[in-house]
Amino acid sequence: MKSNAGMDVHTVLDDSPIYRRTSLAVIPALCVAGAFTILLHRNYQAYLSLGPGGLPLNPWGWLISTLVKPLGRETLSTTEYDGADSFESCLGESSSIPYRSGPRPRTGWHFLPQRQLDQIPDEAVKQKLRELMDRLAKEYEKTVAVMPSPHEKVDNALIIRGTPPHKIASDAQSEILHLHASSDFSVHAILSSRDCKLVIERGWGERHPLSGVLGNVPRQFLMVYAPRNDEEFAVVERILKASIEYMTKRHSNS
């Protein structure tokens, strides 16, 4: 009797239109939830693959990096650099800066941290970049100090000694540049507006998506792509020296 009653109950449920509609609704919902979980997992793994930056490499860091994504802006336009200080350049004649060959490197979906995903230099170029940071610190030791980056806090940065000489330097917490020596070997550097325009248009770098959005990330805050060979290394060295010269000197319009 109990067994038959149980079977009758299940039969009634199976034949119920409400039960069938509920089942049909639950199955797609479970599929969507499963697909969404997979996408979140892949997005989290993509964040971890960028390496250390200003945020922790854990779910909290990933969540923050994901939530700020809508605040980012495009990184390649240059009309905003045609303003009052566009006449200033520490790179010299534009004709002396060649166009970078090939396509730009791909960058991560997350921009905290902002990193390139390909065109990573070989170990020989990486070592030259490490040595360049040491050499620049010594060459400009009267105006520059080596300290942990105020922006990313992982790698060391070149910082202005003493009082920042102009507003952009002050807004940037006196940070001039830092090498991403623990990940892709690109560089974040601040340049004059004219030099920003040249670097972006010639294919050597791009803006940080939060540049000009957050107070401590001025619109002149660029990511300079990692050099792939000795010829590109020479150009990147010039760009970094121009960054130091711009950030450590007084400017009439700053």
Automatic annotation (TrEMBL):
Domain Luciferase: from-to ranges: 174-243
Keywords: Membrane, Transmembrane, Transmembrane helix
Transmembrane segments: 22-40
Entry keyword Membrane: yes
Keyword Plastid appears in the UniProt entry: no
PANTHER family found in the cross-reference section: AMINO ACID PERMEASE_ SLC12A DOMAIN-CONTAINING PROTEIN (PTHR38695)
Protein name (Swiss-Prot/TrEMBL): Luciferase domain-containing protein
Organism lineage: Eukaryota, Fungi, Dikarya, Basidiomycota, Agaricomycotina
